[in-house]
Design goal:
heterodimer, A: mainly alpha, 3 helices, B: mainly alpha
Amino acid sequence: MNPAVYDLLIGLAVVLFAIGLAGVALRRNALVMVMCLELMINAVVLSFVAGAWRTQTLGGAAMSFFIFVAVTCEVALAMALLVLLSRRRGSLDLGSAPELKG
Amino acid sequence: MTIFFLVALFGLVAVLFALLVVASRQPMRAALALVAHMISLAAIYAALDVHVVALFQVLVYVGAVMVFMVYTIMLLDDRDPSYARPYAHRVPAALAALAVGVALLWAMGSPTAGGVNAPAPIEGLFGFRGFALGFMKQYAWHFELATVLLLVGIVAAWAAVREAVRDRA
């Protein structure tokens, strides 16, 4: 097993996570922000799979399965909320919904 | 060496499509770039012989989640100006993301620098039979909990839809 492959996978996961984070910070449309969140989740899954591959254990692969389940729930709910937000506000611009600032 | 080359190649493709997701002004283009990004990651998993995760990635992510997202884009107005207008503070946001990336890389250092001996590959561990047997032995209870999470997701989405119907009435 080539250790350089593991280093490459972890480096790739970090780069993808940073790109997703930049997207969440840069874009103001809620739908595109959800897509950028998916990029970040994919980076996390990649790091789990890299760990599973490196150690030859099931833990990382099982965790990625559970992440897929959570993502499915998240997207189902997020899409319903986005359609609702779009109908109410006429836009998915998060700047037009200041009450979401917590 | 073949695995290294394949991971590097598909990794580069994944990074390019990830950048396209962030940069696209059209939501459908961003969604299709995300699909291509996920397929590239599935190719990486397949190159690593982690076939079960590669199949989950294609079936669950590309086949279900992304198709769902594409349907949602069709329901929404793509003339929404917020697709084209980026957030005002571009430079601080990009710098913050870069800082997080550099910090993560620094924290991880060189993961294999410690000289930890990796175990030899176990034949069939990440194949369907090996994964299913190991998963149900160790994670049966977690699997049951995941089904509860799915049920909660369905109820929450149904509540949001009911809200939309109430708005229309």
